[in-house]
Predict the 3D structure of the following.
Amino acid sequence: MRIFKTAWFERFAQARDIPDALLREAVERAERGSVDALLGGGVLKQRIPRVESGRSGGYRAIVLLRPAERAFFVYGYAKSDRSDLRPDELAQFKHMARHVLGLTDDQLAALVARGDFEEVRVHE
């Protein structure tokens, strides 16, 4: 399973000290069937805990997932900042999922090289 994050999500994670290990753990939970919210079209919402705290008061991440192949962290927010996505936002994430999950390896490599996506490190 390859895991990526958008440049926007990388800035979000850095500002909140969210390590790649927590992103990998969130994808591993999803792969085992423990998904916080299936939103349809390859889009899911997964909880990410604050460091040294629990998941319930932490962050929410919007993840585009093709099981056993790829996951993309595209958006995040603190539970205290907002309750849920608006319908228009969800529609945009579903549209994005159709595009991003259909990328070829060469297209994805070009987007990583351009800085649009960053691969989540295996070891920190």
In short: The first strand starts at residue 2 and ends at 6.
